[in-house]
Specification:
The chain is 34% helix and 21% strand. It is α/β, with parallel strands linked by helices. An eight-stranded mixed sheet has the order 6-7-5-8-4-9-10-13, sandwiched between helices. A four-stranded mixed sheet has the order 3-2-1-14, with helices on one face.
Length: 362
Amino acid sequence: MALAVESIEQALVEAFVVPPFEGRLSKDNIQTLTLDGDNVHVAIHTGFPCKQIAKQWQTNIEQTLHSIGAAKVAVEFSWKVATHAPQGKSGEPREGIKNIIAVASGKGGVGKSTTAVNLALALHHEGARVGILDADIYGPSQPIMLGAAKQRPESKDQKSIEPVVAHGIQSMSIGYLVEPEQAMVWRGPMASGALQQLINDTRWDNLDYLIVDLPPGTGDIQLTLSQNVPLTAAVVVTTPQDIALADALKGIHMFEKVKVPVLGVVENMAVHICKNCGHEEHIFGRGGGERLAAQHQVRFLGALPLSLSIRELADSGTPTVAADPESPEAILYREVAVTAAASLASEPRFAAKIPTITITND
């Protein structure tokens, strides 16, 4: 039976709702679909970076179309990150930055900073231009995690500062400007002022995403960022245990109050896998982050393991995604990052623009 455009389109739509496409691609992403006899050409356009992960998607799409009778299949991916309108009352987008995404947690010790830097590196690995701002004035950690603790930012015009580039991403932190052992004994307004200077005085260079690594809690720094910086959205990191979930919920409510939408919840330290025997153990509980997301109607972005290598690589200055982008742990970070970016690109509340669908018979 001869192929029809409608059957091909239906096969693609069905493929888009199963892993690894689930929650990332939809019918709207089909830019062109051309049928020439039994030969099919599909062009898919996304509003999020997918340079590497698209290779896996391409293979799956080809297999799907071959299974319904296509002889030759050509799949073409393209993407472009749009500038999304800042939420709330935080003003126009900043020059040199398309989208600012805060990574937050209500509680310390849940691996938020490690998650933030690996998500930034994952977006870079997928082809985006990415920066990371360390907003923890009292306990900056990004310079160490990026292996750049000894670097100092330059100022070419004596008015602004150049971001420190490490592992392909731009970064800024108070940790670059003070000695490692120096304690920032500042009251809240001083810390908030320092944060605004780091954001405003850094010459960010044409970023698709600026990831902001927030300190834990819901205090001055969080309010300063939410009220004075054009945030696009936020990601909340938690562990599965009840005490962390309670604080993560406070983080979600904080963003709701300042009208910053939450892209989703990341469950960190979800499972520990013994490197000797392969036994899986849910040390901090099971599925708490997913339940939290479902109860409060935000997307569950994914779960990350409790892994010795993740900690060791972050401490060494070469985080997991930079050290080995194809490792099982790095692939999980990449999937979470792409899911978050896809949510930003496709959900109506972010006013993403998807190209018009064109379907032709040759």
